[in-house]
Design goal:
- The chain has 444 residues and is α+β, with helices and mostly antiparallel strands.
- Among the domains are: 204 residues, 2-Layer Sandwich (Ribosomal Protein S5, domain 2); 99 residues, no CATH class.
- The protein contains 14 helices and 12 strands.
- Helix 13 packs antiparallel against helix 14.
- The mean pLDDT is 94.
- The structure holds 2-acetamido-2-deoxy-1-O-phosphono-alpha-D-galactopyranose (NG1).
- The site of 2-acetamido-2-deoxy-1-O-phosphono-alpha-D-galactopyranose (NG1) has 17 residues, from helix 3 and helix 5.
């Protein structure tokens, strides 16, 4: 692989020297969806598919980007104080996010450039975190150009937390799951990740089952069209958190410090999940809540509520179902903790059941599934999976399936026939694969 990527680098940039090589794996999330940005845990694992880059520093401050994939054209930007985002969907935004984030956090004395070639066997828009893998790989390349090394100059989790914020540059309001597992993942283990502060516990994977990824082949381009759809859930959760905080202030007669929903469990209140659910019911009415009612409860003008919490969120005449979002958080929190225990206990049946419940909650409470993802999970269960759910941001992308090891071959054949050939009407063999873990990102 080294030779090939180096050769491609030389073909792209001329024989400019021996490039340095870095890799960053994709990830599949077993359970814990749309919880990270609220500070609630997740349970992903790395996969073998990855982004690889070849890179050489430049002393003229120019960042030259090339990609072996024809969909991503050559691009360039200057490494100065005013790195501005390109239009949504432009792939240089991920390199810009990494460079601008490091410049802001580490304030380096020099601003070197680099010539970078990216290559991947990780599909994009599949919910397998190609975007964060690219951000992490570019960050490693830029750190190298600055003479900084992972671990020695910057611990992995510190870099992960930094890059989670840095990726907001591209316009999505995600949490820190992807950057953390990409940097701190280990071979043969899943990662139970907690946030604020970021902590990673490695958990054993089942030895009687395989984790199988099935791509629905409906692209979820989070940096493009799916961006505002994705952002809707973080925004509604933050609004829900404000409603909860307002309610708590009324009940206690003073402000209670709750910065994000996760603080209800870990903060000064230390609620149980049952108590958190009861609080949600007191703080937010059931079903869609009209904007005027939200504004009344927060004692704010509707325009202010829109400007502060509903930016980019599509206008819903009937209102927003905030309680459903909060209930998903409580349920998913409990499922992640129980799934972690199931992994340590080697209880695959329990894990599968939790994955199925998670899919139903993502579909019914968050509205992030699609007819294709629903059909794919139904077929997967009929084909012998113990658990099947959408993975990642949703609105397309892939499902993650827990399949007994002795049924994997039949499973892949059945899903290929019934989903790809019968439901979609085309061949899709390459989009079903057994997930294999890999080491966290680093130099090759
Ligand atoms: P993907 O599937 O990589 O787009 C996104 C967010 C995660 C998390 C999941 C949903 C980014 C970089 N990633 O992941 O933080 O919120 O959705 O669980 O925004």
């Amino acid at each position: 692989m080294r030779g090939t990527l180096t050769e491609k680098f030389r073909a792209a940039f001329g024989d400019a020297g021996e490039p340095r090589l870095f890799r960053a794996p994709g990830r599949v999330n077993l359970i814990g969806e749309h919880t990270d940005y609220n500070g609630l845990p997740v349970l992903p694992m790395t996969i073998a598919q990855e982004i690889r880059i070849a890179v050489l520093p430049r002393d003229d401050g120019r960042m030259l980007l090339r990609n072996t994939h024809p969909d991503f054209p050559p691009l360039e930007f200057a490494n100065d104080d005013a790195i501005a985002p390109s239009p949504p969907g432009s792939w240089d935004n991920y390199a810009k996010a990494a460079v601008a984030g490091i410049n802001q956090c580490l304030t380096p004395h020099t601003r070197p450039g680099f010539s970078l070639l990216a290559d991947a066997d990780l599909p994009n828009g599949a919910g397998l975190s190609s975007s964060s893998a690219l951000v992490v790989a570019c960050a490693l390349a830029y750190m190298d150009a600055l003479g900084l090394s992972l671990e020695h100059d910057l611990p992995r989790l510190k870099l992960a937390a930094m890059l989670a914020d840095a990726e907001h540059f591209v316009g999505t309001r995600g949490g820190g799951m992807d950057q953390a597992v990409i940097l701190a993942g280990t071979v043969g283990r899943a990662c139970k990740i907690d946030f604020f502060p970021l902590r990673v516990e490695s958990a054993p994977l089942p030895d009687d089952c395989e984790v199988v990824v099935c791509d629905s082949t409906v692209k979820a381009e989070k940096s493009g069209a799916a961006r505002s759809l994705y952002n809707m859930n973080p925004r509604l959760c933050h609004l829900g958190c404000e409603l909860v905080r307002t309610r708590l202030a009324e009940e206690f007669g003073e402000e209670v410090e709750v910065e994000r929903l996760g603080d209800l469990w870990y903060g000064p209140l230390c609620l149980t999940t049952r108590e958190a659910e009861a609080l949600f019911m007191r703080a937010v009415p059931e079903g869609p809540v009209p904007l005027v009612e939200i504004a009344r409860r927060l004692r704010q003008k509707p325009e202010k509520v829109v400007a502060r919490w509903l930016e980019e969120v599509p206008v819903m005449d009937g209102g927003y179902d905030i309680l459903a979002r909060l209930r998903h958080q409580a349920g998913e929190y409990r499922r992640v903790e129980t799934a972690r225990d199931a992994l340590f206990a080697g209880d695959s049946a329990a894990l599968g059941q939790l994955m199925n419940e998670s899919h139903a909650s993502c579909r019914d409470m968050l509205g992030i599934s699609t007819p294709e993802l629903d059909r794919l999970t139904e077929i997967a269960l009929e084909a012998g999976a113990l658990g099947a759910r959408l993975t990642g941001a949703g609105f397309g992308g892939a499902t993650v399936n827990l399949v007994p090891a002795n049924r994997v071959e039949r499973f892949i054949e059945t899903v290929g026939r019934r989903y790809h050939e019968e439901y979609l009407g085309r061949d899709g063999d390459a989009s079903i694969f057994v997930a294999r873990t890999s080491a966290g990102a680093g130099p090759v």
